[in-house]
Design a protein that fits this description.
The protein is α+β, with helices and mostly antiparallel strands. The chain has one domain (2-124): Roll (Thiol Ester Dehydrase, Chain A), CATH 3.10.129. Helix content is 18%, strand content 39%. It has a 5-stranded antiparallel β-sheet, with helices on one face. The protein starts with a strand and ends in an 11-residue tail after the last helix. The model has no long low-confidence stretch (mean pLDDT 93). Bound molecules: coenzyme A (COA). Coenzyme A is lined by residues 46-49, 75-78, 104, 106, 108, 112, 114. Coenzyme A binds next to strand 2 and strand 5.
Length: 138
């Protein structure tokens, strides 16, 4: 499901004229936390693990990012969220894949101990819907 959109600005750019990788990782981590909150009734999630983070294509200033998320694994206190980031060009409706990665989020109580996830079944169904392919409209 589409979680959010964001635009890349000049201050986000690293040494090689493209989006700094750490900036992309921070945005994806925030999207993983938002996704976990949307899918459950738990108040707090923390990131436990990030894996298979791949930067497929550089991102340039002015480009619009789209963050798509799907649940890759449902655990008792954790969920693995697959995040696919695409650049979307509104003029042509063309998309290109730029970054992907899997984030394991754990629900925690006030003391920071893991707790059972209270799933929202309807939100889970939309989280398993396919993301748009390249060239699809918004
Ligand atoms: C997340 C945290 C609360 C988990 O604590 P813990 O003692 O390992 O908790 P548990 O043993 O109950 O495991 C919690 C869940 O993580 C899963 N898990 C633990 N290690 C894992 C790993 N290496 N890979 C995938 N899942 C893992 C467990 O299977 C469990 O999920 P489940 O209930 O769905 O099966 C603790 O590690 C923590 O606070 N980490 C720091 C988080 C943080 O600060 N993140 C921000 C980074 S700057």
């Amino acid at each position: 499901m589409l979680i959010s959109r964001d635009q890349v600005l000049d201050p986000d750019i690293g040494l090689h004229g493209a989006l700094f990788g750490g900036g992309m990782m921070a945005r994806m981590d925030k999207v993983a936390a938002i996704t976990a909150s949307l899918l459950s009734r738990n108040r707090r999630f923390v990131t436990l693990k990030v894996s298979e983070l791949v930067f497929h294509s550089p991102v340039h200033p002015g480009e619009i990012l789209e963050f798509h998320a799907a649940v890759a694994h449902q655990g008792r206190t954790s969920m693995a969220i697959q995040i696919e980031v695409q650049v979307y060009a509104p003029v042509t409706d063309v998309r290109r894949d730029v970054t992907s990665g899997e984030f394991v989020m754990v629900a925690v109580d006030e003391a920071g101990h893991s707790e059972a996830i209270l799933w929202k079944q309807e939100a889970l169904r939309s989280a398993s819907a396919p993301r748009p392919g390249r060239g699809d409209g918004a």
